[in-house]
Amino acid sequence: MKALKSIFILIMTLMIIVPFTVSAGYYVQNKVNDPVEITKADVVVDGVIDESENWSAPAKLSDDYVKYFYSSVCATDIDMYFAYDENGLYFAADIDELAEVNGTETGNSVVFTTAYDENSLDENSKNVVGFNGDVFILALDPMGLYVRNGYIAATDYTIWYCMGISQNEDGSCYGRIYRSRSEGIDGEITGTNGIELGVSVAEDMMNWKVEGFLPWDLIISDMENKTFGRATCTPEELYRGGTQFRAAALYQDVIYDIEQDGAPYPYNRYMTICKEMYDASPAYRMDGEYTTLFGLNMFISENDPVFADVDKDAWYYDAVKYCYNREYMNGVSETEFKPSATLKREAFVQVLANLSGADLSGYTTSSFKDVANDAWYAPAVEWAYENGLTEGVSEGTFGAGRYVTREQLAVFMTRYAKYLTKLTRGEADLSVYKDVSEISSWAVDSVSWMVYKGFISGTGDDMIAPKATATRAQMAQIITNFMKEYGLNLY
Questions:
Q1: pLDDT, tens digit, for every residue of 376-392?
Q2: What band does 155 get if pLDDT is binned at 50, 70 and 90?
C-alpha cells in the first residue's frame, strides 16, 4: 500500500512539474551591450537612419546568440539607436528578418496588416499590442522609477510604445504607433500629440527601419497616468546631463501555424534588446508574457563643469560634475565652485530642496525668528521644516549663518532618506574611530547609518570628526553617493 501511495505521489508530482519545465523553453543569454549614451539630436524622422543625425551607438541584438524556442527559430537581427533634444526622445531601429540562422531556414517574412490582434486564436494575445503583424516595441521607464520602487512584474508597470507597418490597398506601407498596457488612455497615437513616426521597407520585405519621436510631455503624462498621479517630473529632469533611463525593446514576430489555418499566432516570439538587468545580472531573450523589460541602461551625455577651480585630476571632480549636471549644487559664481569652502546650514537646506526638485513658490513665510521672510533661502528652510528635515538649533531658531558640521549633515541626510520613504536600518561599528565619544547623542544613530551605507567615511587617522565643518567638495561627494544609491525619487 505504501509503495502504491509513493508511486501515486511521484506521478502527481511529475504531472505538476513537467508542464512547467516543458513550457519554460530556453533562457538564452543576450550579448551584453555597452552603456548607451544618448546624444543631442539633429534628426529628421523619415525612416532613414542617417549617421549625420547624431544617433547613439547601437544597442544590438545579434543572431550570434539565436537559439530555439520550442519548434520555432528566433531569427531577427536588430540595431537600436537613441537621441534627444529639449522637446523629446528620438528612437530608431534597423530590423532584419533572417532567412537562415545557423544553417536552419526560418521561413521568415515580415507581415504588414491593418488588422488589430483581436482575431488572434490565442486568447492571451488579443489586443496586447494593437497589431496583428510584426511589431517593434519600446518600453520606457524614466530614470528606473518602477524598478526602484519595488515593482517586479515590469510588463504591468510600463507603457509599451508599439511601432508597426501597415499596408494600403495599393500595397504601399505606412507606419503606426500604438500604446499598449495603458489602461484609461487612448492606445492609437499615430500623428497625435507631436508624435512622429517614419518607416522604410526594403524591396524583399525582409528589412524595415523605423524612426520615431516621443515628446517628453507625453512620456511624463503616461508615467503620471500609470502611477495614478503619484509620480511626476519636468522635461528638464529627463534630459539634463547624466540622467539615467531604464528601457527595453522587444520584437513581436508573427508565427503562422498550419494547424490553425494560417492564422497569425503571436506567441513565444518576443525578443528583447537589452544590456543587463537592474541588479547588473545578464539580461535574457525570452518568450511570451514574462519577458524582462528593464534591460537597456541609457544615459544623457554629461557636460564638464565650467569651474576654473575644479581640476580634472581632483578626487572630487566626478562628484562636482555629477551635481553640476543635475543642478544639485551650483557654484559660488559662474566660474568658481570653491571646493574647500564650508557650507552654511541655509545653503545645505537649499541643496536638499534641489535634490527633491521641490516647488518652493508657495513658501512665503518663515517659522524661525532668524530667517527673514524675504531671505533668499527662506522658502527652502520653510519647506525643510514642514517636511521634518530640520527642527532648528533651538526652539524658534534655525541657525542661519552657522556652518554645517559633519554630524549635522548626517542627521539631515538620514531625515531626507526617511522623507523619501527609504529604510534607514543598519549600523556601522563606530568604535573604530578614536573620537567616537565626541559624536552628540542625538546624532549617533544617523552617523552610524551614514557610515554603514558608505555615504560618509572617516577623515583619516581613525577619526570621524563629527564637529568638523563639511566642505563643498565633501558635500558634493556625499550627495553623489546618496543619489546614486537612491536616485531621484519621483514619489
A1: 999 999 999 999 999 88
A2: very low
Residue entry with cell 494600403: 168
Helical (H) or strand (E) element with 349: helix 345-356
Integer CA distances (angstroms), 21 to 14, 18, 28, 65, 271, in order: 10, 5, 15, 22, 20
Q: Which three cell numbers stand for residue 69?
A: 524556442
What is the C-alpha to C-alpha distance for residues 471 and 456, in angstroms, rounded to an integer?
Answer: 13
Residue 474 near residue 464, CB atoms below 8 Å: no
Contact 471, 339 (CB under 8 A): yes
| Phi, psi dihedral angles at 447 (to 5 degrees) | -60, -45
Band (139; pLDDT cuts 50, 70, 90): confident
Tell me the residue type at 471.
T
User: CA 282 to CA 30: how far, in whole Å?
Assistant: 7
Section 459-466 average pLDDT: 88
List the beta bridge partners of residue 276: 282
pTM more than 0.85: no
CA–CA distance, 252 with 150 (Å, rounded to integer):
27
Angle between helices 406-419 and 444-453 (to 10 degrees): 80
The set of cell numbers assigned to 398 is 534655525
> How do beta strands 159-167 and 196-201 pair?
unpaired
Contact between 142 and 87 under an 8 Å Cβ cutoff? The reply is no
What's the burial of 6, exposed, middle or buried (CB within 10 Å: 0-12/13-18/19+)?
exposed
CA-CA distance, 290 to 24, in Å (whole number)?
A: 10
Kindly report, residue by residue over 269-320, the tens digit of the pLDDT.
555 555 555 455 555 444 433 444 456 777 888 888 889 999 999 999 999 9
What average pLDDT does the chain have? 77
